[in-house]
Structure formats: C-alpha cells, structure tokens
Design a protein that fits this description.
Belongs to the TOM1 family. Helices cover 58% and strands 0% of the residues. The protein is an all-alpha fold and 349 residues long. The chain folds into two domains: 7-159, Serine Threonine Protein Phosphatase 5, Tetratricopeptide repeat (Alpha Horseshoe), CATH 1.25.40.90; 180-312 and 323-342, Methane Monooxygenase Hydroxylase, Chain G, domain 1 (Up-down Bundle). It is globular, with a radius of gyration of 21 Å.
C-alpha cells in the first residue's frame, strides 16, 4: 500500500494530469487542462499534488516519450497562467527549474521544439516573477544560464499575456501582421462593421468553423515541418513551402484578429484566441528556425546547454533519424496545403 500512496498519479489531480498528458491524445485536451487548473486553485494541497505529478511525468519520460513531455509542458504552462501563488511558489523553485534544464540536456537528445519550449517558459516566468522575492528561484536560474551563454528564444516579453491572466480582451496583432498588406482575394471576408459584435446565423457559424479547421490543419502542417526539417539541411522545395505556408498563416492571423472583436459568440471567440496564440508561437518557432539556419554549422543548442550545466555530450552517437527528404509522407504536402486564400469565403455573400 505504501507504493500506492507514494504514487503521484493515485490522487485525483494526478490522475487527470496523467490523462491530459497521454501520448495517444491527438491534440491537447483543453477542457481537461482547465479542469486541472480549477482543482489546483481549490487548495494548496492539490497544488502540491499536481506539482508532484508533473515532475514525475517529466522525469519518467525524459529521453523516452517526447509527446508526453510536450503535453506535460503545456499543462504546466496553462496552470502557471491560470493558477495562483500556491502553485507559482512550487514552479519557481530553483531545483525544479534545474530539472527542466536537465530535461533538454544532450543526454536526452531533445528535439528543437522541446528545447525552445523549456527555455521560453523559463524566460517568461523569470520576467513575470522578477519583482517577487519568494519566486526568484526561476529568475536566478535564468540569469545563471544567460551568463553561461545559453541563448533564449527571441520573445517580445512586453506584449505577452500576463501570468496573472485577466479576462482576455482583443489582442493586438503582431507588428509584422499590422504592416502586411493583404490583397482582397487573400482575406477572410469580414461581416460589415456595426456598432456592436455581430451575432452569426447557424449557417455562418458552421461555415466559419469549417474554415477555422482549415487554418488549424495548416498550422499543424507548419508545426510538423518546423519539427521535422533540419535548419540548413532541408530540400529547397521544402524550404520554399515552409516560407510560403508561414506567409499564408500570417495573412490568416490578420483576419482572425479582426474577427475576434466582431463576433458575439463566446465559444468561437475562445477558439479564435487560442488559434491566435498558437500562431504567435509558430511564428516564434519559425524565427528561431531561420536563425538556426544561418548558423547551422555552429554547436547545437543542446550541446551548449549540456556544457553549461556540466553534462558531457554522449560518447556514442545515437542513430540519426532518416533525412526528411527521404520520407515523402512527411514533406509531400501538396494535397494537404491547398491555398488557404482560396478557402476563406466566410460571409462573402
């Protein structure tokens, strides 16, 4: 029985965290993630149980199941954004941040997307908690890593949503989207401007939902390409497609941002906000991809990180994944990347 009580997944919150991070999930279970946040906010004991489950989930799957790790990081990020001080104190502890750093060390051969996710979270939390003495463990680790030469993602901290998330309002689109001129045939047609939000008909709602599925699919393809392609080693056609898909997603984001403040539908607005956030993350990943591409001959971020935390590189080379160009199923996206610009006819009639 002792092993049962020591099992962090035997608690109600632990069970939900295990479910929310199951590698068989097709995508994040946001309803379950938010339920986890609500449970954590009920008591400090639940917050501690949740943290035990998160730490166990990360340590058990380090170097083994990257999908579980990514889902767990998403749960962690969501909880920090939506939970209170009791949970923040646990997250900001220096020993936990050290565990996150070791997670992306060379021993575990982490993919670039995981390295970027962990470093981005540390950077955001360090900025959010820098003026709170009881939460400065993460800030100390951030400064130490910076001093050791760790390069963090380029993130516009000032324009990120705050950790203590208020009721969300219409977000400002990124500057590059504001400045971008999109021709009429590339735009999602908007409802006419009125004095207040527009109430959509059932037909309009169905049509918009269908078109947002196209956006989500293209985002998925873009994310897959950013994960699978190796900066500086990609096929020219793949690289051209990557940039074309990024440009198209930026055009679609401008239309999504415009829709957010003009539709009187809470569920649709929440979906638009989620898509906008994920698009911003994809664009940050693309920026980092381009930066890594220009310095592809330099030492890998994982190796630099390993040196900084005192972990030697692996002595035996792990089997290299097959080059992306050798698997047409991963790059032959012609059938999956129909022009978004030809698909968005929302309310054009």
């Amino acid at each position: 029985m002792a092993s049962f009580f020591n099992n962090p997944f035997s608690t109600p919150i632990g069970q939900r965290i295990e479910q929310a991070t199951d590698s068989s999930l097709a995508s994040e279970n946001w309803a379950l993630n938010m339920e986890i946040c609500d449970m954590i906010n009920e008591s400090s004991d639940t917050a501690r149980d949740a943290m035990k489950a998160i730490r166990k989930r990360l340590s058990q799957n380090a170097g083994k199941d990257n999908q579980v790790i990514m889902y767990t990081l998403t749960v962690l990020e969501t909880c920090v954004k939506n939970c209170g001080k009791a949970f923040h104190v646990l997250v900001a502890q220096k020993d936990f941040i050290q565990e996150l750093v070791k997670l992306i060390g060379p021993k575990n051969d982490p993919p670039a997307v995981m390295q970027e996710k962990v470093l981005s979270l540390i950077q955001i939390w360090a900025d959010a908690f820098k003026n709170q003495p009881d939460l400065n463990g993460v800030t100390q680790m951030y400064i130490e890593l910076k001093n050791k030469g760790i390069e963090f993602p380029q993130t516009d901290i000032e324009h990120l949503a705050p950790i203590y998330t208020p009721q969300r309002s219409v977000p400002e689109p990124p500057p590059q989207v504001v400045q971008q001129t999109i021709s009429p045939q590339h735009a999602i047609p908007m409802p006419p401007h009125s004095n207040g939000p527009t109430v959509l008909s059932a037909e309009q709602t169905t049509k918009l939902q269908s078109e947002l599925e196209v956006v989500a699919h293209n985002m998925s393809v873009l994310g897959e390409m950013l994960t699978e392609l190796k900066p500086g080693q990609e096929d020219p056609d793949d690289y051209a497609l990557l940039n074309e898909l990024t440009a198209t997603c930026k055009e679609m984001q401008a239309r999504i941002v415009d829709l957010i403040g003009r539709i009187n539908d809470d569920e649709l607005t929440a979906e638009l906000l989620r898509l906008n956030d994920e698009l911003n993350n994809l664009f940050l990943r693309h920026q980092r991809y381009e930066k890594n591409r220009t310095s592809s001959s330099a030492t890998s971020p994982s190796a630099i990180l390993g040196a900084a935390i005192g972990v030697p590189p692996p002595t035996t080379g792990a089997p290299q994944a097959a080059a992306i160009s050798n698997d047409p199923r991963l790059i032959d996206l012609d059938a999956r990347t129909e022009k978004l610009t030809n698909s968005f006819s929302f309310m054009s009639e």
